[in-house]
Amino acid sequence: MTTTETPVGHLLRDWRKRRGISQLELASRAEVSTRHLSFVETGRSRPTPTMIVNLCERLDVPLRERNTMLLAGGFAPAYSEHRLDATPMAAVSEAITQILRAHQPFPAVVVDRQWEMVDANESIGTLIADVDPGLLEPPVNVLRLSLHPDGLAPRILNLGEWRAHLLHRLEQEIAGSGDQGLAELLDELRGYPGGAGEQHDPRGIIVPMQFRSALGDLSLLSVTTVFGTPRDVTVAELAIESFYPADAETAALLRS
After folding, report:
1. How many angstroms separate the Cα of 183 from the Cα of each of 40, 84, 177, 198?
2. What is the CATH number of domain 87-255?
3. Could you tell me which residue ranges the HTH cro/C1-type domain spans (predicted)?
4. Which of 15, 168, 212, 246 has the maximum number of C-beta atoms within 10 A of its C-beta?
5. Which is it for strands 239-245 and 117-120: parallel, antiparallel or unpaired?
6. Largest Cα–Cα distance in the chain?
7. H or E segment to which residue 36 belongs
């Protein structure tokens, strides 16, 4: 663990502004005085660890950044961070294994905060067959694998629409987390070819991925699953991306 050189008050102010919340509104949510909150942000008052966590909860700050703010305030991190194969994570790891197994014969993949593949079921092979082996060298970034010209992109029949959907989703995640690594990934993905006619239509109910596989043309809906009320950084940053058939033909092909 290393401390940050940015004062905790400045970090809190930055998150408040990122969320578009006034001092008055945040103070009301956190049940503190506006004057005290102002003093905290300017460094005139040192917040307690309880107050830092309280403000972070009201601002929906990710657990990793909450630990950063506690360190900046001179306090120990409040949230653990374990490897998925660590003993305390046994129940989480088993739950992920069961979800992936139960989702067969439909593809599913587990990703972390940076969209790097943590685990996947066997059916994911239907999507990643024939991609450049270099893109499958760990760590495998799922978004890069999807949109890279040597990845899935040449076989995504609605590439412009699907690409716009993924980029819009990534933009939202960056706005919510302020993650610089994701911002760099977004710049990289925007540089890939295949964006002709891409647009994000907010009126659409859901965007399926139309994919040409060795089994035939597939239409797949993506569903994201996250753990509720996580208290560990690793768990908070995990997501399971599950693909479901969008039509009867796709379901029959995958079950075959």
Report:
1. 29, 25, 10, 20
2. 3.30.450.180
3. 12-66
4. 15
5. unpaired
6. 67
7. helix 34-42
Assigned token pair, 167: 């980029």
Instruction: Find all residues with CB under 8 Å of 243, minimum gap 6, and list them.
Output: 106, 107, 108, 127, 209, 220, 221, 222, 223
Phi and psi based region of residue 60 (left: phi greater than 0; alpha: psi -120 to 50; beta: remaining): left
Residue 193 corresponds to which amino acid? Answer: P
Residues 6+ apart with CB under 8 A from 185: 114, 115, 141, 143, 144, 170
Residue type at position 174: I
How far apart, in whole angstroms, are the C-alpha atoms of residue 41 and residue 100? 44
Cα–Cα distance measured from residue 232 to residue 172, given in angstroms and rounded to the nearest whole number: 23
Residue intervals of the chain classified under CATH 1.10.260.40 are 8-72
Q: Looking at the chain, how many residues does it have?
A: 256
With left for phi above 0 and alpha for psi between -120 and 50, is residue 197 left, alpha or beta? Answer: left
Amino acid 245 reads P
